[in-house]
Amino acid sequence: MRKYLRIILLISLLMPGATVAGELMASGSEADMIEVEADMLDVNTDKGEAIFQGDVKARRGDMVITSKILRLYYDNATHKVNELIAEDEVVLSWQDKKGLCNKAVYLLDEQKIMLLGNVNITRGNEMLSGQKVTFDMATDRQIVEGQGGRVKIRINPTEESGILQWEK
Known about the structure:
The protein is mainly beta. The protein has one domain: Lipopolysaccharide (LPS) transport protein A like domain (lipopolysaccharide transport protein A fold, Sandwich).
């Protein structure tokens, strides 16, 4: 019974009530919604944390994140999701790009995504790698750090490159 209560609580957090839904419809669209599926879900309401485990797949708009573990953090007062952390065999797909890394942190309020540890992003034959890649969607800025290693990029100078582009 307790397991079902946790699931119902999480659904109520992810599927806003009538008042919040009205605000969401006024300010956003279905692309703003986050859909998550996994083999297991553990919700800790005291911490404002939901942990998805086993073949996790999360989607928001055209971005898909798969991993073994996904931690979703939300504000207990507003029930607003503010952070997602994917760990273990993380794969991100968005637009025409694919990223692999050890860990991905998505800060929704700050509109930032950080890919951490052995980051490798590909777009066709183009490639970008480093130890930390930060996409700041609010400022359209991307920062690639080697953190003791080297930053590497492979682009075709005769064609339009999109490996460094993040489109909203």
